[in-house]
Fold:
Amino acid sequence: MSDRLPKERSPEPVTVDSMASDLRALGVESGETLLVHGSLSELGWVCGGAPAVVDALQRVVVEDGTIVMPTHSPGNRNPADMQHPPVPEAWYETVREQMPAYRPDVTPTQGMGAIAECFRSYPGVLRSDHPQHSFAAWGAAAAFVTDDHALSHSLGDESPLARVYDLDGRVLFLGTTHATNTSLHLAEYRADLDLETATRESAILVDREREWVQWSDIEFTDEDFDECGEAFERDRPEAVVSGTVGVGDATLLSQPKLVDFAVEWFEQNR
Structure:
C-alpha cells in the first residue's frame, strides 16, 4: 500500500460521518474485534486523511470493541536480505552494528499505508514487541492482542493474529484485497505443510540495551493469497459481506472461518 492520490473524486467529500455510516451499513458492529487492512488512496477524497478513517473506525467499534492493524517494520532485518534496494556486502557489519533497535512507540511502519502509520501513534493504542511483524491495537482487548508476541514464528499461534482468532474477530478490507491479508499467514503455520525455515535477524532492546538478535521462522509466502481468498469467498459466502466505504471497495469477513478454510486449502493446493 502507498500514499497515492485518491483513485477518483467522490461526489462529496468522504468524512468521518459518512465513513461511520458506510461502516455500519457494511455490518461493522460496536464491541466487535476488527482486524483492518486499509488503503487511504482507495477511499476517495477523505476530509482529514488517515486520522478521519481512524476516527470513523473508533466511533463505530467503540472502546468496548477492539481495532487491530498490522504495523510491520520489515526494514529492521538481516542486511543480506535487503533487496529494495540491495545493500552492498561491505555494509553488512555496519548495518548489524548501527541499525536502531525496534521501539514500539518510535519505529515507523513500512509498506503498511497511511492509515496504519497514523493508527499506531493514536492515544490508547498498544503495539506488540516484534521488530518486523508488529501489530497495534486499541480498545477493550488491546493488551490481550498485543502482549507476548513471540519472536520466533512471528505470525503463528503466539502472535496477535491468533489472538484475533481467539476473539472470533473479523477482517475488514478498506480498498485492499486478500493479497495483503495477514491472517492467511496464521493458516500457513497451522497447515500440515513441509515449509522450510530460515534465520531472521533484527535489532531489539533487551533490558533497555540494544542487541542484534537471531531467531528461526518459517519461509512463509503470500503468492497464492489472492487465489485462496477468492476460493474462500466462493465457498463460504455466508462469512463475507461486501460494500463500499467512501468510493472504495470494502469487505468484511470472519477471520476464524477464513483461517480454518485456508488451512485445508493450503494443504490441498500447495
The two ends are 26 Å apart (CA to CA). The chain has a mean pLDDT of 95. The first helix runs from residue 16 to 26. The beta strands are 33-38, 66-70, 126-127, 135-139, 170-174, 197-206, 209-218, 240-245, 248-254.
